[in-house]
Amino acid sequence: MNKKRSIITASDREQRALSVILVLILLLLALFLISVAIGRYPIPLKEILSIFAAKLTGAARFWPGTTISVLFDMRLPRILAAIIVGAAFAVSGAAYQGLFKNPMVSPDILGASAGASFGAALGILFSLPGLGVEISAFLFGICAVAITYFLSQAINKAMSGILVLVLAGMVVGNLFSAFTSTIKFVADPNSKLPEITFWLMGGLSAVGKGDVLLLLIPFTLGIIPLLFLRWQLNIMSFGDEEALALGVDVKRVRLAVILSSTLVTSSAVAVSGMVGWVGLIIPHLARLLVGPNYKILLPVSLIMGGAFLLLVDDVCRTIYTTEIPLSILTSVIGAPFFIYLLLKTKKAWQ
Amino acid sequence: MILEVKNLSCGYEGHKIVTGVSFQLGPKDIFCLLGPNGVGKTTLFKTILGFIKPLEGEMRLDGENILDWPRKKFARAIAYIPQTHTPAFPFTVRDVVIMGRTAQLGGFSSPGRKDREIADESLETLDIYSLKDRIYTQLSGGERQMVLIARSLAQQAGILIMDEPTANLDYGNQMKVLNQIRSLAEKGLAIIMTSHDPNHAFLCSSKVLLMQKGNIIDCGTAQDVIKAERLRALYGITVKIIDTVSDENQPTRVCVPFLGGTAKTAQAINQS
């Protein structure tokens, strides 16, 4: 009797998780269509749908060149970039929170963002083209995390692995922030300095087709291992010794998660600049919705992160005559929202 | 499944904490590791569990050297039940127990229906099936300890290693846990646990490994090893060991400590 009932509840829970994912996908789809339509050059939804239909069926119909160019060269790449960047921060944030057994951890804890910012500032200082700046940011993001990791390996003999890793991350992050400040200090205050400052504030206004490709490759390379390791992340959140005793190769899983998250985060920062909060609040929100099991939490974080940043970016580009930097809005929305979450879950903390 | 520990020395990089530990553990055995704080019980435990590498000696399972087994293979043979703790995330009891299945899963796969059924069976074995949908972090200490035991059962290892399974539990829960430990051993599991209460060794009718300053000074049945003089020398306290019978006429032995007593008064008590 008992057993039968238990199987039903188990599949009930899976059913619930699946329906949450389905609803979120529909929400993202709706948001996507709205995002394509709105903007400085509005395109009616009906027209968008018929353009998509024509592209799919190969029907030869003609629309104004401006519409096509706005749609395919600007709006679609930007929307895709927003979704990928949001998903990237949310997933790597969720993964790191499990790895470091702490819900207060965000994707930049090992210095990825600080390194990427330095790389971008350096690229701008040397007048690299847009794509060059992004590649420089990407590489320095990976470089910073690599330094953190090897530093922790060199120190870590008797101390707990995670603690050393976090400390090394703080040191490396601070160091790269100092380097970025140095570059700002020596940069030409009339041209380079404002460019660096604006880049660091984050934004997707300059995103083109090339950037989406640059994003998509590391994103895919990082996301797939993370999705495969999501059961292991559950175990990792119980600490190294328990994970070992439960049969997880802790060192290898940790390295794989760090490597994948860094790929994903660095490429996201390289394209969007410093966008905070997404990696912290989205996993929280997802956890409230579907619980802490990474099997479901990770895909839900992925979709929610993408939808959230797309929404924020829509607000950024439509609310005011000039664009608002992305990081300002994510903070303005993110910080109060986070306080609300803390107040709401106050009981769980006591 | 027989675990053979031979001349094991453990510690950290040249700093030897425990030396020359040897024992043999088989099905239905309960080993209770007794000894004062700081004699190296935890270090010995961590070495047996493979968290730290031994400085000398060997560990064999059915004759096979397990020191360089991959973690997964190791976890299928030896399960670890840590002291109760609070994880960072509010997993359900069922999820926590299913995590015991990790060692039995293929490389990247997640647990399936069969694993869920095994987890439910483990919960039923310990009579805590009703907790399955509760949030692990919101349970009482006693309930959490039982869930961790259920997780180790789901792991289906032959040997359970328990770090102070009765720590932080109330009197009733301590007995409940000890009762479960005894019945698990009767079902054929081998168990090693640490404890601070010699009575626990009597209650489980276990074998005792008595530790003092990095050495095992005695090993044998609780009756043979736990003596009043021994405990006096080891802990610097006076105790009296009394044989009594339960209401069901079952003979048991208990260890009663005295506060502030000198060795002399203890002798007087023993003689009277």
CATH topology descriptor of the largest domain in chain B:
Rossmann fold
Which value, in Å, is the CA radius of gyration of chain B?
20 Å
What's the tally of helices of chain B?
Answer: 10
Instruction: Tell me how many strands of chain B there are.
Output: 12
Order of helices and strands of chain A: HHHHHHHHHHHHHHH
Which two chains touch over the largest interface? A-B, 38 and 44 residues
**According to CATH, what is the class of chain A?**
Mainly Alpha
CATH 4th-level superfamily of the largest domain in chain B: P-loop containing nucleotide triphosphate hydrolases
Structure overview:
The complex is a heterodimer of chains A (350) and B (272). With 350 residues, chain A is an all-alpha fold. Chain A has helices at residues 2-37, 45-57, 65-99, 112-125, 130-155, 161-186, 192-201, 209-228, 230-236, 240-245, 250-272, 278-290, 294-318, 326-344, 346-349. Chain A has a single domain (84-349), classed as ABC transporter involved in vitamin B12 uptake, BtuC (Orthogonal Bundle). Chain A starts with a helix and ends with a helix. Chain B is of the alpha/beta class. Chain B has 10 helices and 12 strands. Chain B has helices at 41-48, 71-77, 93-98, 113-125, 141-154, 171-186, 198-203, 222-225, 228-235, 263-271, and strands at 3-12, 15-25, 30-34, 56-61, 64-65, 78-81, 159-162, 190-194, 207-212, 215-221, 238-245, 251-258. The mean pLDDT of chain B is 89. The chains are: A mainly alpha (350), B alpha/beta (272). Chains A and B meet through helix 1, helix 9 and helix 10 of A and helix 2, strand 6 and helix 4 of B.
